[in-house]
């Protein structure tokens, strides 16, 4: 096999996408003792990536060796593999990157007055020269994957690749708060930290000041295990695990077992399908961790995994108990059952009035789950309804000419808001906020929101850019008389927990549906009789009243015929 082909195959293990290049170069800069790292990206990394640092630099005589395969200054013997304390150690990064790009490495060590430069083109060294440059190293990678078109073809959209780069830089900025990180994308500064050493200050740059202020601090030391970092309180959750980050001995890792340990610590605190935000930094003796598992170095193995996971769970649980108040319940909430007991109504040993072990499904004469024809219709009109009341501060009970309707107030309000906004687009009545609301997002979320500004403005949401990753909300649709206006902004960019298939080809409607979901009345919210009647009336006037914009049912219909059969009034067996 030719050396060129072997280099390209090896590069496939290390350089998967532009973010992989940024990762390898930034980790080399950290190992070199840099206090400032600047990353510049053009064309989402396809056209150009440059990483410059003020680290120790490379000696002129070592420059050619640095871009050769399997050349590293971080290992002296095989024994060193069991005591790795640096982020890089394989000696593959520069050689792999140089084999699939046009790479230029410029470096000067602090004790020299002049630096050196070498250019590598598709794995071949073209030129080596002396240059005048600042102390440190600057590596420029151009035309990534120019000689491997198959890999170039399978890269994602520019937005996705930029998000991957931003996510990596922000993670490492949080892990290394004493290093100043600067990220410039397409000529615009995306992210900047001062290198002050204050981790919460970096968290504010990433998550926004309000979010960072609410993060709970984790500080746990047991034996030779140190676990530090931040976790979100139980009131701040996400719909996926993407904002759960782990660093082991300064290295970002992806470990399912660590994630499981963290989530178990949150067990009973969070609803099903909701996840916390967490940035956890674990320090262990180097010999307790094997980082030589995969070329990308994103996986590690622990010598005593059970012990690490147990300590992780204990550290998170301790932080939650220290900062999260235990809910207090008043005994008066049980008093409603007392009159029934006094009246001789039998109760179970657990205090419940009825046996809830029987399935809630409605059964027909054959014992199968039954559903009325009306309940099977997902669209179409609904009859005029008479309000009966509200159950559990979540469902509205109404009577129609053809039976009983149980209405999910949140899903119904979503539908009402969505149809009003889409039908009145461009002429929506707006409400000026007394004081504009400032919302700071993560860099990648800010870039995503920028693509949606025009659509939001069309629907009466006056949102403009206001500094780095910050947006100014001045007015909102008058329909949104409930909820926090800032939630409108966050709903657009946060990952969504419901199926959006019905709107997958309608980008603007998908955005507005997300906003409506966030601003609609919530389950558990008590509505006055007037508000319940108004919601029923508005739902009756909708063109698709039976589902919310995401396809979830707004109501369950129990026909009079079905009720009569269940109560044995039409010859069915008594249940």
Instruction: Look up the CATH topology of the largest domain.
Output: formyl-coa transferase, domain 3
Q: Radius of gyration, rounded?
A: 30 Å
What is the total tally of β strands?
A: 22
| Count of structural domains | 3
CATH architecture of the largest domain: 2-Layer Sandwich
Q: Could you tell me how far the N terminus lies from the C terminus, measured between alpha carbons in angstroms?
A: 77 Å
CATH class of the largest domain: Alpha Beta
Fraction of residues in helix: 25-40%
Query: How would you classify the helix and strand content by structural class?
Result: alpha+beta
Spatial arrangement of strands, main beta sheet: 5-4-3-6-2-1-7-8
Question: If you average the pLDDT, what whole number results?
Answer: 81
Query: Looking at the structure, what is the overall shape?
Result: elongated
Supply the number of helical segments.
19
Described by its quaternary structure, the protein is single chain
Low-confidence stretches: 8-12, 326-379
Top keywords for this entry?
575 residues, alpha+beta, Heat Shock Protein 90, Ribosomal Protein S5, domain 2, formyl-coa transferase, domain 3, eight-stranded mixed beta sheet, 19 helices, 22 strands, 32% helix, elongated
Quick summary:
With 575 residues, this protein is an alpha+beta fold.
Structure characterization notes:
With 575 residues, the chain is of the alpha+beta class. It has three domains: 3-196, Histidine kinase-like ATPase, C-terminal domain (Heat Shock Protein 90), CATH 3.30.565.10; 215-323, Ribosomal Protein S5, domain 2, CATH 3.30.230; 344-575, formyl-coa transferase, domain 3. It contains 19 helices and 22 strands. The strands form five sheets. It has an eight-stranded mixed beta sheet, covered by helices on one side. Strands 9-10-13-11-12 form a five-stranded mixed beta sheet, sandwiched between helices. It has a four-stranded antiparallel beta sheet with strand order 16-17-18-22. Helix 13 packs across helix 17 (507-519). The radius of gyration is 30 Å and the shape is elongated. The relative contact order is 0.08.
């Amino acid at each position: 096999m030719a050396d060129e082909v072997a280099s390209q195959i090896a590069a496939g293990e290390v350089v998967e996408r532009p973010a992989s290049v940024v990762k390898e170069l930034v980790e080399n800069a950290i190992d070199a003792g840099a206090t400032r790292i600047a990353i510049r990206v053009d064309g989402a990394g396809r056209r150009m990536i440059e990483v410059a640092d003020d680290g120790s630099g490379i000696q002129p005589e070592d420059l050619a060796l640095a871009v050769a395969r399997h050349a590293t200054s971080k290992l002296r013997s095989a024994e060193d593999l069991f005591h790795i304390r640096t982020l890089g150690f394989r000696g593959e990064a520069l050689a792999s990157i140089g084999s699939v790009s046009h790479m230029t490495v410029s470096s000067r060590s602090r004790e020299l007055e002049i630096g050196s430069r070498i250019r590598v083109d598709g794995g071949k060294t073209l030129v080596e020269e002396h240059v005048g440059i600042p102390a440190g190293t600057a590596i420029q990678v151009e035309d990534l994957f120019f000689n491997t078109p198959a890999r170039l073809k399978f890269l994602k959209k520019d937005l996705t690749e930029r998000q991957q780069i931003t996510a990596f830089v922000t993670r490492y900025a949080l892990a290394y708060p004493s290093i100043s990180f600067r990220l410039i994308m397409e000529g615009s500064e995306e992210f900047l930290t001062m290198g002050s050493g204050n981790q919460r200050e970096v968290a504010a740059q990433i998550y926004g000041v309000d979010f960072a202020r609410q993060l709970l601090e984790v500080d746990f030391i047991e034996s030779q295990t140190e676990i530090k970092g931040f976790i979100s309180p139980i009131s701040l959750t996400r719909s996926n695990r993407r904002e759960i980050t782990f660093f082991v001995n300064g290295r970002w890792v992806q470990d399912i077992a660590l994630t499981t340990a963290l989530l178990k610590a949150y067990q009973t605190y969070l609803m099903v399908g909701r996840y916390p935000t967490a940035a956890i930094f674990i320090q262990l003796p180097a010999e307790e961790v094997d980082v030589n598992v995969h070329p990308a170095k994103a996986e590690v193995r622990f010598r005593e995994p059970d012990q690490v996971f147990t300590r992780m769970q204990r550290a998170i649980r301790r932080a939650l108990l220290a900062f999260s108040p235990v809910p207090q319940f008043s005994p008066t909430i049980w008093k409603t059952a007392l009159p029934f007991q006094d009246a001789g109504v039998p109760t179970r040993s657990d205090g419940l009035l009825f046996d809830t072990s029987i399935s809630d499904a409605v059964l027909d004469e054959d014992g199968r789950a039954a559903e009325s024809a009306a309940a099977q219709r997902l669209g179409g009109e609904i009859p005029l309804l008479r309000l009966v009341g509200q159950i559990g501060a979540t469902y509205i009970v109404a009577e129609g000419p053809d039976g009983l309707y149980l209405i999910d107030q949140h899903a119904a309000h979503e539908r009402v808001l969505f149809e009003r906004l889409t039908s009145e687009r461009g002429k929506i009545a707006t409400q000026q906020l007394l004081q504009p609301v400032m919302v700071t997002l993560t860099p990648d979320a800010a870039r995503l929101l920028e693509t949606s500004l025009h659509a939001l403005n069309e629907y009466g949401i006056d949102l403009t850019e206001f500094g780095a990753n910050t947006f100014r909300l001045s007015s909102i649709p008058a329909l949104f008389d409930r909820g926090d206006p800032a939630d409108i902004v966050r709903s657009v960019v946060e990952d969504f927990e419901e199926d959006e298939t019905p709107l997958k080809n309608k980008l603007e409607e998908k955005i507005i549906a997300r906003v409506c979901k966030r601003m609609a009345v919530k389950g558990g919210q008590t509505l006055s009789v007037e508000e319940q009647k108004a919601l029923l009336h508005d739902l009756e006037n909708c063109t698709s009243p039976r589902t919310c914009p995401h396809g979830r049912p707004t109501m369950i219909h129990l026909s009079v015929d079905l009720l009569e059969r269940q109560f044995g009034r039409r010859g069915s067996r008594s249940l």
